[in-house]
Predict the 3D structure of the following.
Amino acid sequence: MITSEQVYNSIEKKAAERGDFNRWLGASGIGHPCSHYTSLAFHCAFDNNFSGRTFLIFELGNLSEDLICNALAKAGIEVIERQKRFDMPEGKGHVGATIDGVAVYANNYYLLELKTSNAKQWKELHEKGIKAAKPQHFAQCQFGMELTGLAKTLYVSINKDTCELHIEEFMYEQPVAFNLKMLAHRVIGREEGTKMSTRPDYFECKWCAAHRICHGHQTPRVHCLTCAHSKTAEGGVWQCGRFDDVEIPKDTLQVGCEHHVYMPWMVNMPVLGYGEYYVMYQGKNGRVCNCPTGEFPMIDGEEAPNMMTSALMLEKSKEGAL
Ligand code: SF4
Ligand code: SF4
């Protein structure tokens, strides 16, 4: 018998084969209400673990965009520049926005943002407006207007249950866009973001895919983006400071090498000390020295405690043993 679980499982398997390694800072990521999340996501520090059903929701959203564009066309609203990418100047090819389109009506040009909502979200959006109900979408559009030079947005959200449309126009707000641009610079500069709450039971945090890394003791995924030696460079590439700033090949980026040392702010443990090639943390079961194992038997004349490669730290942290 064919079951829905069978379909979901196949979708998840295909996604796992593709790999979850999207190292691009897009407008929706910059608009996220938690900049710590934005930074962790840009560095692919955690697995999203989306279910097959969630992937279907994303796909339905994509398909709905054409439906909305066709409906707009009937009202004389032309849509051009569908899914066009705009890079942020000085973003070194790591930051930008892929826009849903540009809407043209009566010689006016709008950034077009298309969304789907469930009935509850749509009702709230319709009653309160985008700024209050969907601040992340509002920020995403401000960043999109900054990069495209368009002065206003046409935001359309379709109610998936009733096909009602919420249509809202709003203007570019330079201070908002400026702050988002500064945030983007900090993120690609590999700076730590600010946690939206220090409480693990805070509403937004409870549903966050980064929760175990941010509030728990699980360490991030091990690859070049979570390594303290890497940095962003022009052309959307990454360089390794451990090896004379050489460009890191794409195949290596996803797996790292034996010299990997975690970027300390990504690890949710107090830092006790560090050197060029190691970082010492206070774990709940004692001190931990993250380093290429065997390289640092002595630190400052003392025997280094619990020397662990990043891979071993990850394994131990998943067992709750760090
Ligand atoms: S768990 Fe909360 S504070 Fe941490 S990244 Fe997620 S939203 Fe931000
Ligand atoms: S030291 Fe290894 S893991 Fe770290 S950035 Fe360089 S190549 Fe990647």
Summary: DSSP finds twelve helices and 16 strands in the chain. The mean pLDDT is 94. The chain has two domains: 52-188, 219-318. The two ends are 45 Å apart (CA to CA).
